[in-house]
Every structure is written in structure tokens, then in C-alpha cells.
Amino acid sequence: MFFGWRYTTAILVYLLVLAITSISSFNYGRSSGVSQHASCYSPQTCQSPSAYSMYDTVLVFGDSITQYGNNPERGGYVTRLANLFQRHLDVLNRGFSTLNSSSAVVLAKDVLPITQPPQDQAYPTFSKPKNHGNISSMWPARDRIFPTRSKGAMQLFILFFGTNDAQVPSQKESTPIGKYHANMHTIIDMLQNPQSSYFSPTTRILIITPPPVGERLIRAKILKKNQPDPFSNKRTAKYAEVAKQVAREARVPFVDLYTEIESRIARENVVSKYDGYENYLYDGVHLGYNGNTLLPPPEHTEFLGKRATDVTSNVYHYNMYDTIVVFGDSITQLGSDPGNNGYVARLSHVYQRQMDVINRGFAGYNTSSARQVAPSVFPQRSTSNDKALRQFQSRLMKRASSLWGSKTDTFPKSSITMQLLILFFGANDATIPSDRHSNPLEDYIKDLKYMISLIQDSDSANYSPDTRILMITPPPVGDKMVQALAEYRGIPVSKYKNRTQQYAEAAIEIAKGAGLEYIDLFSELEKAVAKYQNSTGNASKYDGYDHYLIDGVHLNSNGNQVLFDLISQTINSTWPELTPTNITYPYTMDVIPKVHLFDFSP
Question: What are phi and psi of 164, to 5 degrees?
């Protein structure tokens, strides 16, 4: 049966509008298994911002090996990348348990950022990237923290599939090897094809082969009694070869993780009931600590340096989960270090596939410098990009309306909400007045109130009534540790516990006055130190502070554990809807909320 051209054209236009709407509109009511805070999932009343300033990105797309790559306890390779590029590139973990390459092709349309040319060009055509010269021409000056010319470009895309595809044919995740080959090319082509909505010519692509599988280890750690073996190491080896073949055909680099682990096991010649695979795979499939340290090898990250080297004129529109933004000083910046049990790394792990945890820690910052960048750190509720795309949608809908004679101007809406903002300043402010980081107590109070007002004031561009704010006081100073370090360096002491306590008490009073939740980290660590000293008979020459602090100021692994536990307890008791176990996410295909637009303009 054939339809008239008007009807056919109307249908095509309508489908185009739906596609664009699904990636660009706001305030969409996302389903969840729990009651949500306030009205931030209500299509009618959510007023939260949805435009984030971002660094350029590293996007990691894979299966459960990547999903678990956020686990700092196993040296997760994704969280190690996030720590490596802290304050330079945002690392987005898009790992999905049970995903194979066929499912990845479908989900890639949500995972990959849609590229849009500068606003002086018509949407959605594409432009060739401009050459802006050397790196100094693109990187922000000291008074700016985010690049203004690269506009959140995806600098590196890591593609890591094959383990589930290589399962034996009786398993539902199994993919024929020819189909796996085609799927991998399809995803790469989305970035390399100039006609693609995801075309990103300056993005580096890195393929990682599936690792080997330890069949005996799988039998012991994963499978139930009499359950058939879903994995075959010989079969996995064939898929690893295809992954390398795809990389060569697409002319992109690859990491042969399969051969690397197999060769190491052969060299080590370990005699064990698990054939040595337990040294690299904790359950026969997923990477253990030693396996994670192999990814990615230095040669594939050092070429990025710690600054982007290419600049594109395109604007990138990223899919994001709702977010937790952690805003602080060097204690927070170092919080992404998995080797130190960093509290931000721990948060990223427990919220994987539920919320994006964004680390905005800046070493050396006090609240005076933080207030200058806060409007860029906090998401903004409206952007010129939103307006431009709405106008484009409107034109399409008017055309559709003229074709089928009906009014269709109501769109589903979507918003990415900053569910939680953690403010953690004071350690630098509390230095003695002669120190360059010092900030008078009265200014510290004003600065914190100002940053809170950005979120709470309805006239603010960062107004976000649905965002919860958690204040954390600076931790105590280990005076003897600071003294010893200052003597070793030959510099004067600039931090003292008694002075820091004044700032901690001020932070608490500000939180109470603004109706915020707070964590008195100063007092909590003081209690922990006293308890530790009592348990050890005052054995520590640093009065027990060395059990929780690296240098008398920054948190060590134990200190990070205390802080992470306090944050978790606060969320569980005050905002149970944000407890990770209470946030449900759909299975594979629907895992990512609807995309919204970002504004990376100065």
C-alpha cells in the first residue's frame, strides 16, 4: 500500500523531531524505583539547571570490566585514568554489565556525544575542525578553569568490548564473530564518518582487546554447581584477534590485553590450581588489581599529555546521568586517587551507572578563589544552545503541522539535575595571615554564603532548588606532622589546628543558618585520633594524626575512609532516596537518561 507524499513527508519530519527532542529537551520525568527529592523529576515543576561546564573528555565505553573499572579497591583502570587527568580532562565511565557489541551499537547513540558546529552555523550541519595553533592558544589563562575554545571536545574514546560477545553460542550475550567485527566498525564509523551526527575528527580512538578468561577460576568463583561453562579462552582469543583487525582496518591504535596477560602468565610460570589467571583476573573474567594496572599502557595516555592537543570548533552534547558535584581544594582533588582510597573515587564507584560524580577539587584554592569559578563549576539553568535548538525544533514542527494539519507543540522534557553539591573548603583559608592562601575568617564566611546563594537564590543563573547541599568542615591539622615537614623543607609553619578549628566552627554555623546538612569532619577526626591513640597506648610520635593524615593536612587512606563513611551515613539518614541501593537503573538499553545540551561558551 502506498501513501501520498504529504503523509510520508509528515511522518519523516515527525520522526526527525522525535529524535532531536530525545537528545535535547528538558525536564523529562525519569522513572525510578524510589520517591525522588522535591519535584526534580516532575515534567511540570523541575527548575534545576542542566548545562555544565566541562573539561575536554575521555569517554570509556565497555562492558562490566569497564563498569567495575571505577572500583578503587581493585585499582580500577577508569578511576586511575580519572586521577591521572584530574583538572585536565573529565573521564566518563560508560561501562554496562552484560553488554555485548550488538547492544553497544544501539546504546552508542546515547553514549557518544552529538557534535554541533558553532552557533553561527546552521544546525545540524558540520564544519571541519579549525587549527588554532599550539597548545598555549587554547588552554585557559589563570583566571579561567575551563577551556573556552575546545568546548568539551572528546579527546579520547576507548572502546572495550568482546568478552561477552565471545561467550559460547548457547549464551544470550554471544555474538557471531563476523557480527562482532561489523559492530565494532559501526561504532568507530559513528565518529569517523563526516555524515554522522557523532562525527569527531579530532577524537583519538583506542581499542582494547578482551582479556583472556580463566576457565577454572570462573568455575570456582562464578558458576554454580553443574552450570555449563559460558566462556572459552580459545574462543576469546579469536575475538581478541578480530578486535586488533578492526583497529588496523580503522587505522586506530589498540592494546592487546589478551596477549599481554597471557604472556605474563607464561613468563611467571605460576603453579596454581587456577593456572596463574588469579594474578590478573579476580573471578576469571574481570580484572583484578594487577590486570587493571595494565590499562591503558603509558604510551596511550602520555600522547595526550595532561592537556588537550587538538582543538575542534564543534560543540559536544553529552549524555549525562544526574550528578554529584564535589567542590573543594587539594583534599578533594586528591580524593580521586584510588591508591589512597580517595573518597571521590569511592563515591564514583558506588554510584556507577546511577549518577556521575564530578570532581571539582582545585589545589591551592581558598574560598576567595573558589567563589570566582563557582558560577562555572555549578551548572547553569539556561543556555543559548538550548534556545537555538528549540528554535530549530519549532521550525520542524511548524513544517510537520502544515503537512498533517494538526498542532503538535508539546514535547517530552528532560533535565540533568545536580542532585548533590558537596562544599569542602577551609584548609587553605585557615593558614596564617602571612601565607598567600590565607583568607580572613569574615571573608571565608562571606564567600561560603555567596556560593550557597548561587544555588538557592532564584535570581541566580545557577539556581537549583532541587539540589541538596552538604557542607564539610576542614579536617584538623596534625601540628607535629606539619612542624616536622616544615623543618624538613626549611619553610615556616603556616597551618595550625587551633586556627583551623575556628574555620570549621564557622562552616557549621553557616550550614545551620542556610538550613544545610553538614559533616563536622574536624570533630569526627579528632574523636578518631583520640580513639586510635588510646588503642595504641599513645605510641604515635605525631599524636595519632599520622593514622589519618598524609602530611598533617591531607587525608590518607584511613582519613578518606572516615570521610566516605560520614558522607554515606549522611546520605542514608537524610536523603535515603539518594542511597545507591535505592536508585534503580534500567537494564542496558535504557540505562542513560535523555541527553540535554551543554553550553561551553565563555
Answer: -75, -35
